[in-house]
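Students often ask why we bother encoding 3D structure as a string. The short answer is that it lets us treat folding as translation between two languages. Here is a chain of 382 residues written in the first language.
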Amino acid sequence: MSFKEVYITRTASFFPNDPVSNDEMEEYLGYINKNPSKSKRIVLRNNGIKRRYYALTKEGKITHSNAKMTALAVRELFKNDPGLLKSMELLVCGTSSPDQLMPSHAVMVHGELPETGSIEVVSPAGVCCAGMHALKYAYMSVKTGDVQQAVSTGSERFSSLLRSGNFEDEIQKLVQLEENPYIGFEKEFLRWMLSDGASAFLLSDKKNENGVSLRIEWLEGGSYANEMEVCMYMGGEKMKDGSLKGYMDYSPEEIISNSVLSVKQDVKLLSEYIVLLGGIKLKEVLDKRGVRSSEIDYFLPHMSSEFFKSKIYDQLLKNGTGITYDKWFVNLSSVGNVGAGSVYLMIDELFNSGKLKKGDKILLLVPESARFSYAYGLLTAC
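And here it is in the second language, the structure alphabet:
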């Protein structure tokens, strides 16, 4: 069986509403216990994010669902042309913040696109790597000849989880117990890190006749969950022994009073291992694929925070896979951390920047702190 070359031929993104500055964040997310955050300034200073997007009004009204944002990004791929939308054969949508537990995210996106036919629809689960898993499924489907073209997406809508009202019952419980009326840093930290948006790629077995295409050379992932405990989680609570107790094992009252459905991060575990393990796996992948880091023209690392930039740089040097800063292409400061959508948003911006020359090699790195998984890819401009 012969395999086909696979190309990203179009990219598109959608952001809800106007960008939100650092000074405006609490106007959208609200004040917990009517007090300004103690940790906001420190977190923002370290993460380097200057603006982000929320699917919210300042009054806390939700303006877009995750599925709606994703569908709008897909529509932009096809210039909202019903005839072109009808040509889609496969839709694969990755996210860590679906609008509901069931039905799956991708079928809800498909439901927002009535012009399409009855097509295959797939929803990879996960956190930041979910977008890369979507890309790989679409890539493999085109490569094997199962379909001629496919759409993959990465998106998040975190803002509704970050609103202050989600924590009020927990705060009141602390007040009644005469304890410090502030939510734990593992919850507070992520309020200033996460944002909303969606992006989509069109994959084809034929490259563009005019303009640039991105040939997918390979996509590869790896997990360290066999040796690492949970680091980032939602819908559960981390126990003292490192195990995770899921929301289905809590009463409805406990879910509310403990903010079990909020998204949380073990910051100490994150700082200690996320860069180290990602660097080790990257070296393994590059060695396996016979790629030298000196061959890379653009390095697109998904970073949750600028705090990790120098640490990634140093780790790559230590591993003999150093990539100079002039080859880095990141847009964290201008679009925020959009989880599974972040790598898509970087590729979309680079693809449409006019900077790419034929032959340019683009290395992708996506870490997922949930239980330390990583995804990597190599693209060539052609």
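Translate back mentally: The chain has a mean pLDDT of 92. Keep this in mind for the problem set.
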